[in-house]
Amino acid sequence: MEPVKGRDPYLRELLRFALCCRALTLLLQANLGPPFFFQALFNLLIPDHAADAFSPPRLAEPGVCDLLLERLLGGLSRWDAEHFLFIAERGYVYEHNFAFFPAFPLSVRAAAEVILWPLQRLLRLRSRLLLSAALLNSLFSVLAAAALYKLGCAALRCRRVAFLAALLFCVSPASVFMAAAYSESMFAFLAFSAMWHLEKGQSWRSGLLFSLASAVRANGLVNAGFFAYSRCKCFALQLQVGPGLARKLPPFWRQLLSLASSVILMCAGISLPFVLFQCYAHTRFCAPGTGLSQGIPKPLLQLALDKGYRLAAVDGLKPPWCSQRFPVIYSYIQEAYWNVGFLRYFELRQVPNFLLALPVVLLGSWAAWTYLTANPRHCLTLGLERRKNEEEQGEGKPGTGFCCPAVFVYVVHATVLLLFGVFCMHVQVLTRFLGSSTPILYWFSAHLLQEHEPLLWSEGTNKETRASLSEKSVLGNSLAGSYEKGISENPLVRLLRNYRLNTPVTKCILGYFLSYWLLGLILHCNFFPWT
């Protein structure tokens, strides 16, 4: 890894770029000021979609400041954001609200009550919640970019690729969901931070962050696999040491007991928020005498009647999931309200949504195939084989970058999420699902840019000696110089400024990231089905 003396110039430039990207996203979605022209144009070309989405009535009359804030940040409250804001304001009133985990709405409510307390005379609670969500997600997305950079430095052992990947995260195809009142930014920050601490060997701190992540999104449970794999790998490598070192290790049964106990305890801790949330739902809906309909405002009761939303244990009627052997409300809601299940989305009318998700499916599949072909033995042995020479990273591949051995578990994680998303989920959410859960999309995109774009090649590489690329070589050497001196110019900005000189691979990657960033703003903020 390239040494960095003093304060990390890469991190400083990354934070600046992340803040600029978040500010630009908020500006473009606003219905006030210069971006209003674009919003008006988008509304003409793509009118607001008449969606049967969750839209609870506003119980308090909005003031002037509330209306102004709605014009500024109203685009961030579409679709699932309505659920999070409603939960933050009213709690879990309806059954299908339990599809959304509590950590993010609790954080939004806490920030609205504490940090934005001075604004309570100017803004209603709902407006303060929206402002709180926008501020929190801006903070979480910047911190997530920093955590991804630190994780990349630890796992890839290549600061340049880690930096470029973190820059790509700032213009992620899921950027609009990182800014809106969704839980993606918070989850990405917690997940990437937990992975980084695990790479540093800080297991308990990593476990705590993974546990918090599972209180944000259900797929946080899958992250327990990182800790389990880490412990199993250490155990397998210990079994392969030489006779001299083996005598210094504890007995085999003690090592096995330590492995089993640590994995069970850590996985139980990571799963604890999910279990407690399901128990809370069971208490609300299945326990006798816990119906809270008496304290629910009449407009919300009327909404339940009009839309068929189920309230908690009204008139002693319990939902069907209460009588299941394992009464888990989350899986029931996904199946009953959103028709989520294996191959249920494979319908002819869903072809446009599959086309919408096609780029991220291709990118994720390409990443998995590239890693598999570069490290076949490492993949077949699940990375549990001790290498004769730790400096020699197998199959003639370097020990740094995307194809290094440490990336194996991340590739497996991303592939599992990809397959589950394609076959068991609403496939149009796959972009934000993967974009906030795995670093592989950004690492592999940065790897492709570093491999195929001469503007990013260091001075002295063989590829730059080709005469046909002389103009690119001059720019590439200049950019390489900026890496050595600090960060004189953002490499992603440099690529965009010299877009006509980019290779086809670079144009495809940048085109995908930026077009989906803008497309997400257009469709999501115009209430079009892009969730």
UniProtKB/TrEMBL annotation:
UniProt subcellular location: Endoplasmic reticulum membrane
Molecular functions (GO terms): alpha-1,6-mannosyltransferase activity; GPI mannosyltransferase activity
Enzyme Commission number, as recorded: 2.4.1.-
Segments traversing the membrane: 129-149, 161-182, 256-277, 354-372, 407-427, 509-530
Pfam families in the record: Mannosyl_trans2
Pathway involvement of the protein, from the record: Glycolipid biosynthesis; glycosylphosphatidylinositol-anchor biosynthesis
GO terms classed as biological process: GPI anchor biosynthetic process
Enzyme class name: transferase
Record keywords: Endoplasmic reticulum, Glycosyltransferase, GPI-anchor biosynthesis, Membrane, Transferase, Transmembrane, Transmembrane helix
Described purpose of this protein according to its UniProt entry: Mannosyltransferase involved in glycosylphosphatidylinositol-anchor biosynthesis.
Family: Belongs to the PIGV family.
Protein name: GPI mannosyltransferase 2
